[in-house]
Amino acid sequence: MQLPAAPDLTDLAHTHAGPMHWLATATATAAVVALAGLLQPGPAGTTTTTTATAAAAPRPAAAPEAAGVAYPVECGGGPRTVAKRVSGDLDGDGNPETVAVVHCEAGSGTPPSGVYVLTRGKGADAPARVVATLVAPDQHRSVTELAVRDGAVLATLLGYSSFDVPRCCPDEKEQVSWRWRGGAFVRAGQDEARGA
Q: What is the pLDDT of residue 100?
């Protein structure tokens, strides 16, 4: 049995594609891909949010500014300086707090530092305020490193083993951390930090 010969496709009109054919094909393909992207569901467990809904969602407040706060640091009438500051959500409320290292300005030596936690006052225009003292200046410590990680305040404290050690040259180094627990900042391995 003999099969009929295959038709010669080179003579069919639709096999001769011109530039307009390719342009129309590309446009149609792009439209299908775009439509598929719009109709595709999101990852499991998520919902699509419209622009109006996203705009209505509350945004976290900015971290409190460390400048201009009334710190409990006595400098004998001299100026004080904010030497370091870091921010992060320390109490899990979704809004950042600021941790500030403050000391008196001194011409020489290593002035003792205070480490303070700041939060915003009530109201949009309320100034920042000290809510906890993690290290008081009368503990005679200075701070070389300060960070907030995973809701904890981490610091490196330098101090003195005795009053015979010159104030320029701390001879003790301590890595410490504080975490918010039960309504207070608790230092790792110790009882709660002193409240402001």
A: 96
